[in-house]
Amino acid sequence: MRYLNKRDKIIFFIILGVIIIGIYYYINTKDKNILTAQEENLEVQENKVESVENENNEEKIKVHVSGAVNKEGVVELEINSRIADAIDKAGGIKENACMDEINLAYKLEDGMKVYIPTIDEKKEAEQSNETGTKNNEYVTMGGGTNNKNENKSQESTKININTCTQTELETLPGIGPSTALKIIQYRNEKGKFKSIEEIKEVSGIGESKFNQIKDLIKV
Fold first, then answer.
1. How far apart are CA 131 and CA 147, in angstroms?
2. What fold, for 59-157?
3. pTM for this structure?
4. Other C-beta atoms lying within 10 Å of the C-beta of residue 219
5. N or C: at which end does the chain have fewer Cβ atoms within 10 angstroms?
6. What is the fold, at CATH topology level, of the domain defined by 158-219?
7. Residue 175 has what pLDDT?
8. Contact at 8 Å (CB) between 138 and 149?
9. What are the domain boundaries of the chain?
């Protein structure tokens, strides 16, 4: 067996060092590429999730359900939902609900109000029609399918903006915690609202938002 002289040993260790360094950089670079690819894949997945969440948020509508249902208030529904879906979200109908004039298959839009009359209200409306009294007449709301009685029952479902709480205000379409607080602050500083139109003086409530809530509020 031939022994390496000093010069050969130096050359051997130099070559060995180069090989080790090369292997180290190869493994290190490979790991970095794998990690980068994993990070890019994770970012893509996060973007997809965020995109889906945004789409889901855009495909939600809010509808006010009142009358003879178990839980009156604003419910959130999928886009293209029907009156039947809104009633389900409102806890279903009460025993005295009259569904004769309600089209459960009617497609809802954001900001609509669905009113479910009681049997007594229906009878009162029919009697009023017989005597020609128009004030108690059932009128068409939301494209001809959800009817409501235009008497005391309608007025009682409205929110009094002079006495209501923040929670009650937040049930109105388009009214969040911030705007609800502004309404209460305005009321405390300026006094009671003299008309529902005065609510447009509150910062954040323009003509468009007022049109969404004007049929749901009173003074």
1. 20
2. Ubiquitin-like (UB roll) (3.10.20)
3. 0.41
4. 15
5. N
6. DNA polymerase; domain 1 (1.10.150)
7. 87
8. yes
9. 1-58, 59-157, 158-219
- Report H helices in 67-216: 83-89, 119-131, 152-157, 166-169, 177-190, 207-213
Please, which residues bridge with residue 63 across strands? 75
> For residues 196 and 212, what is the distance between their CA atoms, to the nearest angstrom?
12
Neighbours of 90 (CB within 10 A): 22
The single residue listed with the structure tokens 């994993």 is 38
Span 142-172, pLDDT tens digits:
444 444 444 444 555 788 998 888 888 888 8
- Of 94, 92, 97, 57, the C-alpha closest to 76 is 57
Backbone angles phi, psi at 69, to 5 degrees: -120, 160
Q: How far apart are CA 102 and CA 116, in angstroms?
A: 8
93 forms beta bridges with 69
List the structure tokens of 119: 């049997």
